[in-house]
Amino acid sequence: MLILGIESSCDETAASVARNYTEILSNVVASQVDEHKQYGGVVPEIASRRHCENILWVVQKVLDDAGVTLSDLDGIAVTAYPGLIGALLIGVNFAKGLALAAEKPLIPVHHLAGHIASNYIAHPDLKPPYLCLVVSGGHSHLVEVMSYTSFRILGRARDDAAGECFDKCARAMGYPYPGGIHLDKASKTGNPQAFSLPKPKIAGNPYDFSFSGLKTAVINLLHHAQQKGEEICREDLAASVQTTIADILTTHTIRAAREHGYTTIAIAGGVSANSGVRSTLQSACDKNGYTLYMPPLSLCGDNGAMIACAGSYAFDAGIRADAALNASATMKLTDWERIGKDTTAIL
Ligand code: KG4
Ligand code: ZN
Question: Which residues neighbour 86 within 8 Å (Cβ) at sequence distance 6 or greater?
Fold first, then answer.
């Protein structure tokens, strides 16, 4: 089976060709990070315009790199939700046109299902059911992966996502966008015990996440130091923030695994590249006798390979769209399979 995957939900125009679900024949990512950096974050209209300019050559290149033509494909998968609506619409409309012209099935893919699938590419032995911590710039979800296309959400971010917290803390500390990776690098030489930062207590669902209090505490700490003319060691603060986020994510994940009987755990999404999150979760899994799957760093961020892989499983499950496919900025992961099998559903 040959599936083309197209991703344009945020600031990466990406595409890939997957053979038999997990074999990645080609993978191209055109990143816009350098352009958005000067504004301190993604500017949605600029993102849409760059996707418009890049999508044709990116898709042409993955087909050429894979040595295939449109007629060789079994289907065209595209991220249709969630994400920046203007950005999503570029990929969705491009994929629609391609599917119509090539007379190939169109497969709408949920972006988070794509992140989850990044682990299948690197670890073909990983099979549902298992527990997956999905942590990106826009989402923090604890997901029960019931099958390749069906999911249950145990916990979610009530306010800022983990990646958003990394980025906002890093920005307050003076690091460029996207700050998560800079904070990660800085923390390598910092003392993680230097600052005691708050861990939220959440009423109700114990698996839910809240990171806005941590972000506010970091911003307040920096303001107070500035007002008093005190120097703050950025590396120490970076290490303290990273350790706090890694501890929160790990504690929730291990608790959910224990209480729901999972011994196989995975992590996915941009934040799964964080060295502190990876090592803290790995140690906790080792201590509890759980097996942990993590994507390679190259597949943690947004990419087309994860969409091609998720699209392959979705193709098998009968998830399809016609020319009326619309993008959605907010679609829930748990609604994907149902809506994807109902081509009469108009979003
Ligand atoms: O999954 P992703 O590439 O895009 C979304 O779907 O949102 O995730 C991007 C997020 C950003 O917040 C970025 O700062 C964060 O992942 N990120 C990191 C690291 N690398 C990427 N956060 C912490 N440490 C990292 N090494
Ligand atoms: Zn993402």
Answer: 44, 45, 47, 48
How far, in Å, is the centroid of ligand 2 from the Cα of 284? 25
pLDDT digits (tens, 9 = 90+) for 17-60: 999 999 999 999 999 999 999 999 999 999 999 999 999 999 99
- Stated pTM of the model: 0.97
Report CA(152)–ligand 1 centroid distance (Å). 23
**Tens-place pLDDT, residues 243-277:** 999 999 999 999 999 999 999 999 999 999 999 99
What DSSP string runs through 76-143? EEEEEESS-HHHHHHHHHHHHHHHHHHT--EEEEEHHHHHHHHHHHH-TT--SSEEEEEE-SS-EEEE
| Protein residue with its CA nearest to atom 2 in ligand 1 | 270
